[in-house]
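Narrative summary of target 7.
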Amino acid sequence: MSLLPRKGLLAIAAVVDVALNARDRPVSAKALAARHGLPPRHLEPVLQALVHDGILRGVRGPHGGYALARERDHIGIDEIVRVAATVRDEDDDVAASPLIADVVSPAVAEAERAFSGALSRINVDDLARRVESGDEHPSSAEIDFTI
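Modeled conformation, tokenized:
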């Protein structure tokens, strides 16, 4: 079970994919979606949010697509996750109740802050280097998730 929502994982994968593949020219949304087994319409709102927040740069035209807006070692995974969380789905509504508002949400928010602190120690360059070195599946022992 992942602690990150699927949209957060997809956003991270998209940014790392762009970091690896947008060297000569931007990566199209269609190519990104195909590599990740998604319809382009599903990924596009996340990509647009990443552009809006300055993580990716949108390039228009027939050979357009997405490129990194900053150096990959200056893009934190926690930042990508925060941006992805701003993209709403139709099924994002949670029933409003005093229990959720007064107890559950504050407790989860505290845990999310701790988790975000751990994510802030990882950047796109860290993940891209793992792929480039052929170590796509590092053991959890290699990553310090101490909170």
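The mean pLDDT is 82.
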